[in-house]
Amino acid sequence: MEQYYGTGRRKTSVARVFLRPGSGKVEINGVPFTDYFGGLVKAVTALEPLRRADATNRFDAFITVRGGGKAGQVDAIQLGIARALVNYNSDLRAKLKPAGLLSRDPREVERKKYGKHKARRAPQYSKR
After folding, report:
1. Any residues with CB less than 8 A from the CB of 7 and at least 6 apart, and which?
2. What are 109-118's pLDDT values in tens digits?
3. 3-state class of 78 per DSSP?
4. Where is the sequence biased in composition, kind Basic residues (predicted)?
5. For residue 120, pLDDT beyond 90
6. Domain residue limits at 57
7. Domains held by the chain: number
8. What 3-state DSSP class applies to 111?
9. Residue-wise pLDDT tens digits, 62-104
10. CATH number at residue 54
C-alpha cells in the first residue's frame, strides 16, 4: 500500500501524518477529525494544505499527534500534511510555499528563571 509521510512540529506538539489514497477521511489518534477538535474554530486551518493542493477528497489522513495544546497541534498537523503532500508530488511545493504552509514556526516557550515570577516578569519594585 502506498502512503506518504510528513512530520510537523509546533511549540511542543509533534504530528506524524500518513496520507494514503482514499476518499478524504481524516483521523487523529484514532478519532475522527471533527470529534478530536470539537468546536475549535482554528482547527479547519489544519486541512488548508489539502485545499490548496486540490487533494481534499483524494487522500485519507491518519495522524498521530502528541504534546502541547490544541492550537499547537493544529499547526503541527498543518505542517505535517504540507510536507506529506510535497513527498507525494514535489510540484505541489510551488502552491504551498508562497502560502507559508511549509515554514516551521520556531517559537518555543522561554524557560522560567530563578528570582522571577515567569520567564521575564520580575517582582514588583519597591523604592522604600
Report:
1. 14, 15, 16, 17, 80, 83
2. 999 999 999 9
3. helix
4. 113-128
5. yes
6. 4-96
7. 1
8. coil
9. 999 999 999 999 999 999 999 999 999 999 999 999 999 999 9
10. 3.30.230.10
